[in-house]
Each structure stands twice: as structure tokens, then as C-alpha cells.
Amino acid sequence: MSEFVSLEISETIATVTLLRPTMPPALFVELEALFERLAAEKGLRAVVLQSTAKAFSFGLDLRAAMADLGPHLAGGGAAERLELLGLIRRYQRGFDAVAACPVPVIAAIQGPCIGGGLDLAAACDIRLSTRDAYFSVRETKIAIVADLGSLQRLPRLLGQGLVRELAFTGKDLSAERALSIGLVNELFDDAAALHAGARKLALEIASNPPLTVRGVKAVLDHGEGKSVADGLAYVAAWNAAFLASEDLGEAMASFMEKRPPRFAGK
């Protein structure tokens, strides 16, 4: 049992729970390993990423991080810089593994979502939050250029102007404002309602043909930064390869027979 993150899989849905309000270096290694495991789960249909703390996350555990990074910050030559580069890349791989998960990942965010917490939320496909949540690219205020994904992923969600304002100032963004700009999809009154809402959404996703949902995510991910023509060529090739499935036959049969479909992911 990890002291930083837990995993439960039930009814084809995984629930990944952050167990601390801050992120020590070990968390990034554990997230990478955990999501690599989830990527190999053939029956998995959706993931809910949540927290048991009052905050979704206050971001990097500075005390633990300085113990990890500190020896590489006190001068040194090119060798020390390469060591530091390797440590940063190791942290990044934890959130990259979340983004690369082949099934949809829903972030259930309560309270503060700051620094690394926002980096992690940005790596998810869908974000839900409580009404008391707030968001911040806080790294700027502690003399760090955010390096775990916010500056790369948020502009695709919110546009350059707003992300630059948030990153240049380190200011807080309220849940209501986050909803209005599309950072989160829905607000909930408290953590219990949030977690129930995230589970309900995951079940709704899981009710669809699982290979098709994976295909939708793959096509959306491939299309990032590419032209419409490139995206259309990719999805045409995808459907030429994968359209003929047992689930397609089941979808047609259930429609004709006026009954709920039973998708098996084949």
C-alpha cells in the first residue's frame, strides 16, 4: 500500500486517489508506474482521479523536493545540470503517463488545485470541481517556471492570453470562472457530490463501446496541433482498421431490437 496514492478498480472503472495534499518526488514515480499498469488493463473503460485531502493538491512538497533537487542547485558544472535535467524529466513522466492513458481520465477537484495540482489536472481529459475549488499556476510566485505541463497543456484548453495572465501573475482562478472558460465541465456543492458525479460520468462513458471510446481519445490526441486534413486522414485510417467490430454489430442489433446494447469490447 502506497502512502501517496491508492488504486481501486471496480466495474471496469479505476479510482486513483491522492492521499496527501502535497506532491513529494516519490509520487511522480508512483503515478508513472500506476498509469502504466492501467494502460495495460484491457478491461478498463475509465479512470477517476481524486483526492482524500481537503485540497486536491497544493502542488510540490517543497521540503521533500529540495532534499531531492537541492544538491543540484548549489553550483556545479554541466554534469550537475544534466542530473537536474534528469530529475525534472522524471517528475514530468508521472503526469505524461496520466495524459497517455488510453481511456478517459476524469479529475475530481476539491479545494485548492495549485501548481503541480493544476499540472496534473491539465493532464486529464475532463475536469469536475467543487464550488470552493480554485486554481493557480503558483510556481511563478516561488521563482520556478512551471515545468510539469501547465504551460504546455493549458493553452490548448484556455488559449494563450488567459494562460499567460495566470502564469505571469500566479493569481487564483475561482471555480465559477474556471467553469465559464471551460477549464472544468461542472461544479458540485461538496466533495461527496463531486465524487458521486465523477463516478456517474465514468459509468456513462463505460456504457459505450470501450474500443470506440479508446479510439475517440486516440484520434483527439493525434489531432492536437495538426491540420483538419491530417486529422481526417488519421481517423479514416483508424476506422478502416477498427470499424468492423463485434460491438458495431451489437449496436446495430440493439437498435433494431429496441433494447439496451451489451458491449463486450470486441
Shape verdict: globular
Q: Could you describe the largest sheet, including whether it forms a barrel?
A: 6 strands, mixed
Q: What distance separates the N and C termini?
A: 33 Å
- What's the helix-strand series? EEHEHHEEHEEHHEHEHHHH
Q: What is the number of beta strands? A: 9
Q: Work out the strand percent.
A: 5-15%
Structure report:
With 266 residues, this protein is of the alpha/beta class. 51% of the residues lie in helices and 15% in strands. It has 11 helices and 9 strands. The strands form 2 sheets. Strands 1-2-3-4-6-9 form a 6-stranded mixed beta sheet, sandwiched between helices. Helix 1 links the parallel strand 2 and strand 3. The chain is globular and about 70 Å long.
Short description:
The protein is an alpha/beta fold. The protein has 11 helices and 9 strands.
Q: Could you list some keywords that capture this structure?
A:
alpha/beta; 9 strands; globular
Write the layout of secondary structure elements.
Elements: E1 5-10, E2 13-18, H1 25-39, E3 46-51, H2 62-69, H3 78-99, E4 105-109, E5 112-114, H4 116-122, E6 126-130, E7 134-136, H5 150-158, H6 160-169, E8 173-174, H7 175-181, E9 186-188, H8 191-206, H9 210-223, H10 228-242, H11 246-257
